[in-house]
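Two quick folds needed for the group meeting slides. Do the first one here.
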Amino acid sequence: MIIMADSRKTEIMADQDRTTSVLPDVNNPSRQTELMGSNINDRVTSIMQTDTTIDFTRRTSIDRYKIKKVIAENTGEASLLLTENSGVNQVIKLYHIDVKPDERIERVLASINSPYVMPHSKGGVYDERTYEILPYFEKGDLVKHIPMSFDFIENVVVKSVNEGLKVLHDNNIIHRDIKPSNLFLSNDEKRVVLGDFGISSLLDSNVSVRATSMSRTFGYSAPEASSGFVSKESDYYSFGITILHLAIGQDPFAGMTDMAILYQTINKTLDIPSTVPPRLQQLIRGLTVKDRNNRWGYEEVNRWLNNEDVEVKERRTHKGMKPYNFSNSRYYGLDEISMAFASDWENATKHLYRGLVEKNIVQYGEEYSNRITDIKALDDKDVAVFKMIYILNPNAPLCFKGAIYTDLQALGMAIKEKSPTIDENIMHLIDSGCLLEYIDNNNFNEAFKEQIRFITQEIKKGNVDYYFALMYLLYPEIGFEYKEKKYVNLESFIDNLESNSTKQIVKICQDLISDKIFIMWIYSLGYSKQVENWMKIYEKAVW
């Protein structure tokens, strides 16, 4: 069973070719999901669409900028408007109410002066909405210029993107969403400019890998992104897929489900049509090596541009090895085998405890078979199968008892879909410690780990209501639904509550105090002390 979260579309200057799913960044202090009494000011964000829409037909200007046309209206985080100021066309990115760009990244971007990175100018606040000023590219994004010649790809696109990524990475910014619709052609058509930094991340100066949200575009994101962390090398993987897209003239994953794309990204060698010239094939291969440590970066691409011979260190093939026969299919390679196990948990359990796994896996190395032999001593067979999957494939997405979660947001959504009922398999994932082990092994930051650890401990103590705290931690946009209305901040909920009579308010509060989902929502917003006091009052029946 494949579980995916809903995605939200991010757009700039043109319709996107694929969507980008968004989950708050667990490393950004201003975006962290604060749990159990922490500061919540930066998290209190309303996504109620009635508050975020603007009727631009009634607006002629924003401050001194005259609105000429709407480029993209009411997208995931902002509207994009073509404006004119003193005879110069510019784009205003007008964020929705309570949605603001990452100030740290904005400061860094504002300091960058490169022909290959879209310049950012600070705008202001209009009608309670933050806006920023961007240049207008009359030629649009690269999607508009497909098909394009191989010479143009090599001499303009590759050089420009490589230089643009170098500038970003030198400033510790990971773009995280390189794709044709986020690359813009200069008006003279001599260079390409990197834009749309909506889900970009900022690396600390002393680290090379960053645990992050699951925001990404399936297919263009690197294999390691499925485990929740990205690096500078992740941008180069996206660069490679982008080059493939431009070379074949269409999205290479068109018509595929997100899970099929994810499976191919993790397990399969990228299929490059023979119509792509061998030289360009080499570039794409080098950029899409699954092991980020062997993936091409700035230096390798630069050498390729200079016609030097650059080695592509693809992972070893399994020629001559016996296939693993499982569930009426034959699998080659540990990654493929692990995902087959994840999809058929019951059969995988039988193979493990009948000794079939270590017998077949020994050909890949005794260390694999020895470790698999050891985990059979565990009392919990589900935990043993879980560990087996990650022994074979450390980069596998979160898997448990037949469910494969494309990201942590999908796990949060899975909890939501069955609420207020508790899914026993998800509960077992938590109380067995498997979720915490997955988080620990995938380099999420310490604050996020502590939150998962706290929830796990509370559930093990018997406080099962914290199951729903996990839902809000992983997917805070779920909000709280009351009388067919959705709230994602406490302010809007209280405003609605106060519109009732005192008698009605008392009755509503009596109902809410016994609503475990509501209590965990309040906890997730940081009001633990208030909830505790509220419960004490309720227990004393003081109303």
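Then this one, please, same format:
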Amino acid sequence: MTTSHNADNIKQVTIVINGRNRVVNCASDEVETLERAEKALNSMIQDIRRQTPQIDNEELYMLCALNLSSQAEQLKQVLEREQAASRTVQHMLEVLHKVQPQPAAEVKTGASIESQ
């Protein structure tokens, strides 16, 4: 991957996908994310090619897109479950706070009880 700077913190980044160079405009603070995406996509391409050596590029890219969509959907479902669990915990904490016994006020009287 190579980069060159443009105005407004935008970089032109050259990435290699499936052996072909592509130039992508990328915010400076997103270059590392782009590098990870490049590696993940190339790894996915290699895995599919190992399983299906005769696949053409169009089908290869379609399978990659489907795999990525599936992964995104799975992550979305995990996030939704985590958010629901967080809301449940928050609600439980609120309920516990409402029903938690308050410390009893000490009652002082001048009388005492003596045992006989």
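Slide caption for protein two: Residues 10-99 form a domain with the Double Stranded RNA Binding Domain fold (CATH 3.30.160.880).
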